[in-house]
Design brief:
Length: 275
Amino acid sequence: MQDFEPGNWVGRTQIRDDHFSFTLVRRIAAMFNTPAPAEGQELPWLWHWCFFDGCAEQRELGPDGHPALGEFMPPAHGRSRMWAGSRVEFLHPLRVGEAASRHTTIKHIEEKSGRTGSLLFVTLSHDLWQDEQLCVREEQDIVYREPNPPKLGAGDPLPEMQWCETISPDPLLLFRYSAATFNAHRIHFDWPYVTRDEGYPGLVVHGPLTATLNLAAFVQANPLARVRQFSFRGNRPLIAPADFKVGGHHAQSGFADLWAGDGTGISQRASVAFD
């Protein structure tokens, strides 16, 4: 990282326009085994993560399937990319069948040392606008780690939960979520690559997919709740096709703690604030 100066990247901005196409919304709904909202209805929580892809050309992809860095995002010098977490504030509903734009700013960059070596943390700020109204505000944490075998030791055990669902992350679900998000990261669908090149024991479940399923389980268990804020943080990867659980309990009035994990412990922690 000798030629890398964070000050040259912090503050950079990017605007992407998209349309919450009913065709894609219907495909997302089919993937989640849920009825599709009609045009004009609210886009379900966190489905906006399936939009605003940069549509990188095939020749622009790196060996891991991600677009090459060094244009908007800073260079990571061969490191592996992970979506470590997000903090999302829902201000106004996003509507299916309407155009929207996402305004992104590189907010913070920091170099740290971890169990797997040097880590580069990049925090992005996303503002989602529709009909000249700010609808969603989000901070997203991206981590680039050195290409060492991941450490997959046991995590803290899942606590007792007031609601809980079991998820079976077969390769079809992972493939469809990769397709819906236009995400070519090979750890989610390329078994020889993920086991040989990145050292995982199997296909890795997407962090945002886990978070989306976890928030959906909360909404299913609390149908009168109006979500205002949601955050999640990844602790350790989930490996397909082993079943995992999503669920949580009410911490206090208007707040709930959520978890996702399998028999080896917690993999993702989340929280939700609601009316």
